[in-house]
Amino acid sequence: MRILVCGGAGYIGSNMTAMLTREGHKPVVFDNLSKGHRTAVKDVEFVQGDFGDLGFTVQTLKKYNIDAVMHFAAFIEVGESVTEPLRYYDNNVSKTRTLLEAMEKAGVEKFVFSSTAAVYGMPDTIPITEDVVKAPISPYGETKWAVERMCGFQSQTGRLRYAVLRYFNACGAGFNAALGEDHRPESHLIPLIIQAAMGKRDNIKIFGTDYPTEDGTCIRDYIHIEDLCKAHLLALKKLESESEQVYNLGNGTGYSVRQVIDTVRKISGKDFSVIETDRRPGDPPVLTADATKARTELGWTTDYPNLEAIVESAWKFHTDHPNGYES
Ligand code: UDP
């Protein structure tokens, strides 16, 4: 299939693009490079453009005879979404609406959308199944949920077939650790700890040590980027027969912040300073996925369920690229 990868120069989009190529598809990366890295896009067609530009997006979809769109071009910082909600509604909702309109105009029906566990807010039941009540507690989560519902309504017209994939904590580096995390600014736990281990920052801060968990720190479900991308391929294929799909993507195993720090210490062989600070607003104590639905309906399996393997790949990416994609 010819697939437009919106946000294909970003962390998840670049790994997805590499996997699509490996599997014999023809991806076209569509990215405005506001966050992504041109050097993360290797040996595939690249179009610099904005998915909020209706005319140009329609033109691009037609020019490349696109069969399906995968959309990774969202803003993802929970904290920033609280201070700049309108920017998040603009990029994540309004522009995605434009993208869907462009698809309709170009006659492209298939859409795979990156969603998030943040749509669940502070769920009462753990692990989380897809039918748990959606109660986002940040503008970020709310914008993703709004797009999910927009897709639902649009698919009822018969003009959209879509798959929503709700990610837990995407991490690690794919394709022999060539494609990893390089967010600016960085806010994700694993790259931040690795930067501390590399001496690129003075310490790592633990946001809250008084949570109702065994060691007092938050528990998250860390899922390797290649495992995540594999599920997209399966969902894409299933769009042939299913017009609406929603899946959680996680391993179902939780690791605390302290466990992640210990794992980076072990893999890197480096010690670094750890500072215990206050909770970060909006962090639920435990988020783990029940991904039974993806496993049974898509036949999804994971190759890197183990945190050490995930951290090993991330460590390799960061030490091979000490200045990120600018290295
Ligand atoms: N976290 C932390 N220190 C940091 C960054 C993150 O203690 O410098 C914690 C954060 O509070 C959360 C977990 O690590 O419990 C994962 O955070 P991240 O931002 O990587 O992903 P999120 O769970 O917010 O999607």
Topology (elements, then pairings):
Blueprint: E1 2-6, H1 11-22, E2 26-31, E3 45-48, H2 54-63, E4 68-71, H3 78-83, H4 85-106, E5 110-116, H5 139-156, E6 161-167, E7 169-171, H6 189-197, E8 203-207, E9 219-220, E10 222-224, H7 225-238, E11 244-249, E12 255-256, H8 257-268, E13 273-277, E14 286-287, H9 292-298, H10 307-320
Parallel strand pairs: 1-2, 1-4, 2-3, 4-5, 5-6, 6-11, 7-10, 8-13, 9-14
Antiparallel strand pairs: 9-12
Helix pairs in contact: 1-7, 2-4, 4-5, 6-8, 6-10, 8-10
The structure holds uridine-5'-diphosphate.
Residues 78, 169, 187-189, 192, 204-207, 218, 220, 257, 280, 283 line the site of uridine-5'-diphosphate.
Short description:
The chain is of the alpha/beta class.
